[in-house]
Amino acid sequence: MQESQDLNFIAILMFSIFVLITLFITYWAANQTKTAKGFYTAGGNITGLQNGLAISGDFMSAASFLGISGLVYLSGFDGLIYSIGFLVGWPIILLLIAEPLRNLGKYTFADVASFRLQQTPIRTLAALGSLFTVILYLIAQMVGAGKLIEILFGLPYYVAVIIVGGLMILYVTLGGMLATTWVQIIKAILLLSGASLIAFLVLINFNFNFDSFFSAAVNFHDNGNAILAPGGLISDPVSAISLGLALMFGTAGLPHILMRFFTVKDAVEARKSVVYATGFIGYFYLLTFIIGFGAIILVSSNPEYLNADGTLVGNNNMAAIHLAHAVGGDLLLGFISAVAFATILAVVSGLTLAGASAISHDLYANVFSKSVNEKKEMMISKVATVALGIIAIFLGIIFEKQNVAFMVGLAFAIAASTNFPILLLSIYWKKLTTRGAVIGGGAGLMLAVLLVILGPVVWVDILKNSEAIFPYKYPALFSMAVTFILIWFFSVTDKSKTAKDEHKKFDSQYFRAQTGIGIEEGSHH
Question: CATH code for 2-405?
Answer without folding.
Answer: 1.20.1730.10
